[in-house]
Amino acid sequence: MLKYLILLMIAVLLPLNSFAVTPEEAMKNAQAAFLYQGKDFKARVVMRLIGKSGSERAREITMLRKNYGESGGDQKYFMYFYQPADVKNMAFMVYKYPGRDDDRWLFVPALNMVRRIAAQDRRSSFVGSDFTYEDISGRDIADDTHTIVKEEKLGEADCLVVKSTPKAGDTDYMHKLSWIDKKTFLPLKEEYYDKRGALYKVFTADEVKEIKGFPTVVKRTMKNLQSGHSTETTFTAIDYNIGIEDSLFTERYLKQPPRKWIE
Amino acid sequence: MKKHYLVEFSVRHPKLVVVIVALVTLGFLTQFPKIKTDTNPKNMLPPTSDVRVWNDEVDGTFGLYEDMIAVGIVSDEGVLNERTLGKVLRITDEVLRIEGVSARDVNGLSTITNVTAEAGALKVAPLMSEVPKTRAGMDDLRKDLFENPLFRGRVISDDGKTTAIYIPLEKGANGKTVADSIKEVVKREGGPERYYVAGDPVARDTFGSEMFKLMAVFAPIAGAIMLIARYLMFKDLFLSVTLMMDAMISIVWSMGLLIALGFPVHIMSSMAPVFLMAIATDSIHIFNEFYFRYREKRDKKAAIIETMHAVGRPVRYTALATAVGFGVLLFMDIVPVKVFGAVVAFGTVALRVLSFSFIPAMFTFVNEKNIEKIAAGEETSTGRTSGFLRGLAAIGAHSPRATALIGIVLFGISVFGISRIVVNNNMVEWFKQDSDIRTADSVLNTALGGTSLGYVVALSDEDEYIKTPEAMRRIEGLQRHLEKLPVVGKTSSVVDYVKRINRVLHDDDPKYDTVPSSKEEIGQYLFLFSMSAKPSDLDNVVDYPFRKANIWVQLKTWDVEAMRSVIRAVDEYKASNPGALAFKPAGIAYFNLVWNDEVLWDMLKGFAVALVVIFVILAFAFSSAKWAAVGYVPLLFTILLIYGAVGYMGKDFDMPIAVLSCLSLGMAVDFSIHFISRLRQRLSEGDQGGTPSSESLTDALLWTAARPGKGIMRNAVLFASAFSVMLFAPLTPYITVGAFIVSMMIFSAILTMICLPALIVLFRRRLFRG
After folding, report:
1. What angle do CA B226, B230, B231 make, to 5 degrees?
2. Quick check: helix, strand or coil at residue B34?
3. ipTM score for this prediction
4. Are the C-beta atoms of residues B358 and B18 closer than 8 Å to each other?
5. Are residue B768 and residue B627 in the same domain, yes or no?
6. CATH number for the domain including A106?
7. Count of domains forming chain A
8. Residues B97-140 pLDDT 10s
9. Which residues from A are below 8 Å from B when comparing CB atoms?
10. Is residue A19 included in any domain, yes or no?
């Protein structure tokens, strides 16, 4: 009898527990689900940069990522460019450390030279798109104060809406609202408000697929409402836990990436 | 005879007429709350005009803004010190919060993208995200600023004492409102730094709103002065007010109609009331004659009807001439010009209808005793004014040849002056020399590359072509060519970025401050730049498929001639350096050029057509081409003299002058119509038939100068005194209007009095034959 009672109590308390998640925990979960899934990760990324008048520019890369340590810890990124045509063979490498500036290297084929790139501003545009470096590789959770604003349904998904306000004033936005799917923890929508308090940038996760058991956002859009510019990103050939070796993330491979990762 | 029927009806049923007029006026007044205003001179060209469509296309392609405000910050000790930089940082931050400012593309020391090599690493980041705290940090900033051609002349002056923040405006934002908010922000920061807010949107929108305000101030003042002057002339308050009402009613009718038809009140039509007030002074001839007639008849009603008989014909024709002079504008291309012409033409017709109904009706209410008292003063043989006028006419009548000779000499001098007139428009110069806007503009234009912005768009018909070294070199060559022009302060383009990156990637070696030799290299540099710069940095200078490039040309003056010289230089360059790229001008400076040409030439065209049409009307009025030719002389002469003077003073033929040209026609011709009509009437009253003898003609001329001439002189003085107020206005176009009208009135009145007698005596036989 007691056993059943306990089970009943657990059954009653469980949903309550999931409600009782702190905003920081919600953001941590989202970070883990969105940016740290698996030990490593690979995808072919196509970005369509769409101007106000409808003109387009394309970016096509293979992106390789490897985690070092826990979710929220160090990561290494390797990106190889196919498009635009004149940057084919260009390769870009990022060592990401929480709490301090990234290290970035770029291989410039025309000069046959690897250059270090100083990256102070994580809010700057990633390859000319509406995504910032931070949008691609994440923002330290401790940099913001988070509050849960409300819970609401976004389409089919039950979401927590978290408001994140940067502690320092060095961002281009005043605060951000994130809709976090309670089931997958993926952020399905983000709204950025500018310093006048007006909504100016919207992120949407347009399509989520399960790959090797990991729910993955395979199509996403960032739209700048003020400039009318938007970027649509599609991930294909996604794979997790493929055993990317540490040696990939070196200058040598930046110049000559191994065939097996770059087809 | 229809008009005379109207007069008789009005005299018989004065109360009814006044009630009807009042009701109609009330009806138009009810439309006033619906008023819409449009203070933007830009809208003189519709959004569908070629230049606006093209400029919008360029703005869309390169993510540009129509309007930009520049804020200059000047520190005598140099801006590179902690205090001043702190202020720059805070001001920029505050500006980003102002409604209407396109925050993401504000460029100043703290936001502009800087490409440097730092410890072997390439760095693309905002130049100064925080104020350097150390000597070394300050030195680095100094080095970054002065070594980068993208910054010098843009965000830092060569002497280091001036920096600027460039603030693009969202579409539809009001330049004056934003500028006012910016001024609040800089005021809070205070001295010893000095702050200057400049740019076309500030001038344009300030002018638009000031113009409306001034119209609201000056129209009533001019009206009040006219009222006082009339009272002094006629010593009867009731009649003076009646004359005033005549003008007011026609203003209410025509503006009411404009509003009722749903047209916005544009800066052009906002001037209509003042014009109508001017045109209304013509009814003074009725008053003038009425007093003379009353003295002769001592019967009010009979005097009214006789007066209208005597002046009816000239008043009708002057009205027709004025209405047609403005009506011609209806056939022009620019919509606000058309609307303006229609409003004034309608108002003129309304005025005349009132002259034949409302005014006679009001006469019947005047106390006869008052009229008698005043009429006693109206004695042509003894009055001082009349004596003076007879004297003027005598000069012409007694020495016609000498008068004609002087006239011909003056004519030659004026024509030479006119040949020196430049058609130009510079909105910043519409403000006085010591005004904030002019000062700000000249400070920034002296220290930096210039506040006026034009673009030259390089077009190819092949994707990716802009990335080729030959395209780069051709653009670079054009930039160097344009920079030779004294009006061009600075040019920038995608080439500047490419060269900068080339140098930075080669360990900041100045040898590499050149265009790379392969397309791949250029493409990769640009991509590298786009990896970390603000998206707008590259968008502003190249389009997506790299078919088009945009060269920014900063001009040191808002004179439209500056952009014209740029276009000429581009053509020269194209001719001497043929290649696959085409070049096309764009931007606000280009817009101003087109605006200037289209609007001003349109008005000039209207002016020319009106000149012809008015001659035809004169011919009808006098039923004689010969008399028309004579009557035309004072008008033509007045215009020649004024424009001759404009030419000698080196004043540009700009928008205010263009508007005035139309007014001058309508007004100056009035005097000859009155003079000649009344002269011929007088001669026919004498009933000699055929050619009058010299003596009787001279007598008639002197009588005309003394009696209707008094009306002409009164008209001129009234007018001139009312508009002389404008000489004290804070905006130069108003001073121009004031000076123009005052001199026009005085010239044309005096010319009518002297020239007409001289010409009529000279051509006596021809004029009176047949």
Report:
1. 120
2. helix
3. 0.74
4. yes
5. yes
6. 2.50.20.10
7. 1
8. 888 888 778 888 888 888 887 766 777 778 887 888 888 888 88
9. 49, 51-53, 55-57, 84-87, 90, 92, 106, 108-111, 113, 115-121, 124-130, 170, 172, 194-196, 226-227, 229
10. no
